[in-house]
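Translate sequence into structure tokens.
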Amino acid sequence: MFDLRLEVKALQPNEVAGRNGWNRVLVDVRPREDYQEAHIPGTVNVPLYQPISGWSAQQILRRAAYAFFGVAKGTEANPTFTEEFKSAVGPSWKEVVMICETGGTLQVTGNFPNGKQSRSLIACYEALLEGYKKLSYLEGGVNEYTKAGLPLEEFTPEKRGPFIL
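Result follows.
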């Protein structure tokens, strides 16, 4: 078992902007649709969760539960996250920065005695289990990055390719 506070470093938006390279990989763990809409330049997308797929009884119940709470697009764990992550990042000696929408925090507060969970922190834990040691996350996620006035790459039709109608 790992204590993320000892293993993972929080980064601020200005520490992430334009700082990817051969030994540092920025990994956006948001669903593909969110990533394609807008993302931090230089990131690779490895979704931790994916839209619920299939129509088994369990998946139908999961969709119903999300709908009950007003969530139109329910998600489930991406079963190939580990393989996609290793393929995108490469060797475990590389520095990896996990990025999600909200970023979470490892700071202890009255409301969150263990910090506030997020997709990027969950992804850090998964990476630790796979032997990656140089891990950090963007505190505040894409939301804080945007608030800091830093640019996002946004969707344009020519980036996605031709559409077939």
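Note: The chain has a mean pLDDT of 87.
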